[in-house]
Amino acid sequence: MIIFQNVTVKYPYGNLALNDVSFEIADNEFVYLVGPSGAGKTTILRLLLREITPASGQVTLDNEEISSKKFHDLTTLRQKIGIVFQDFRVLNDKNVYENVALSMRIKGYAASEIKSQVVEALELTGIEDKIFMFPSQLSAGELQRVAIARAIVGERSILLADEPTGNLDPKTTWDVMKIFKKLEKKRTILFATHNTDIVNSMQRRVIVVKNGAIVKDQRKGKYEL
Amino acid sequence: MKDILTSLRRTPYQTSAAFLVLFFTLLLSGILFISLSFIQGLLSYVETRPRIIVYFQIKAEDEEVRAVQKKLETTGKTENIKYVSKKEAYNIYKEFTKDDPVLLEMTSPDILPASLEIDAKSPEFLPELAEFLKNQPGVDEVEFQKDIVQNLLNLTRNIRRTILVFFAYLLIMSIIVMATTTSFKTALKKEDIALQRLLGATNFYIRKPFIAESVFLGIIASICANSSIAVILLSLNSFLSIFLSGLPKLSVNMLNMSLQVWPFNLMFIVVTFGLTTLFGLIISLVASLSATNRYL
């Protein structure tokens, strides 16, 4: 369970990045976070990763207030979360297998468990035949699949996706969305995007953020600003 | 291991710089350690053999000398006393000047003094015994090793200080070069580190490859430095054995254990190798920890 309670985030010069934002996301829920660039979508994701802390308000994850100054268990928090970025962020000197396995090695899994989960994740994302290829040998769509596979292995209960289709062509975007569809109901997914088509087609919960505030929060919503 | 070798191969100049500096440091450290141990062993040897030589007046009779010898024995501060009569002194002189017959012709047993060579139980008894002897009848001159020991002590102290300064210099230089190399590598991996942190990696997990790489370099440099030291010792051993043939076994005390320094032996070489390797590991660890600390 993710709870944002009257969260306000200020930029260093005093401008508001988020203004009194409150919402709740249940376990295994799929939520779109939509809004124009600079609306505050990424700020919400960064609060969940505790890359930043709010000026006021509380961010609670699994009954633990992660925005508190007393919160220090950053490693455990981040080990619960998988992330997919717009720019993929895969390690160029590691092959597909090693990139995905990194997520589990960090959590200290045994080699045999890593192997079985990585292979399973690569099959799910449809790149099992690229297992020993390096990022320079892959297309943008394949790189994003690697990033998704990395985000879902190692029993990470939350998946944060920050504009994951932003760098992809329409066909690849739909291929990637099919993967996300397979992943829903098994983990909490927070999907930040400004792609109208994919939000409207999937009919999931939509939280609309504009100028740092939530302007709409609809079950089975659409991308309407 | 594969990751370490790949990383080292990808940064050949930084790796070479770090390796060469570490190798040079460890080689010099090993040589300095051996030299210092040798000098310390020599000092210990001299210190354990405190000796006084007392020369009697020419007119002094044997009885007078024997009487002084007896008095000395009763002090309980002597280990061994050797009486060198005028005749024995002349024989020693003859042997000493055998290549110069003119000098020998000018001398007779009557003009050489009898003497006592006294080994004290401890160097601290030397001044006391010397003072005692000066007040004895028939005594002409008292010679003892106070000055020699003092000079050797001063020399050892100065050499030790110089070596320590040199050690510190080598240590700091190596740490800075290794830390700079590791910092450079860490900077190259800045984005990887940021990603690992977002995925929940602990500081130790992030540091581990950099530390492993440094330690690996430290071990390789130490093996090379120690091998070079072994080659130097082996090639010098026969020469030193002849050159230092009169020298007895030399030992130093290390952690309440006596370590034989000369003639070179396996235990001394193992200790030197162990300390050099430890020194290399300390440099590698401190350098990699301080370098990675800046990014974590």
Automatic annotation (TrEMBL), chain A:
Keyword Lyase: no
Residues in ABC transporter domain copies: 2-225
Residues of the signal peptide: none
Keywords, in A-Z order: ATP-binding, Cell cycle, Cell division, Nucleotide-binding
Entry GO MF terms: ATP binding; ATP hydrolysis activity; transmembrane transporter activity
GO biological processes: cell division
PROSITE patterns (UniProt xref): ABC_TRANSPORTER_1 (PS00211), ABC_TRANSPORTER_2 (PS50893)
Cellular-component GO terms for this entry: plasma membrane
Protein family (similarity comment): Belongs to the ABC transporter superfamily.
Name the UniProt record assigns to this protein: Cell division ATP-binding protein FtsE
UniProt organism field: Candidatus Roizmanbacteria bacterium RIFCSPLOWO2_01_FULL_38_12
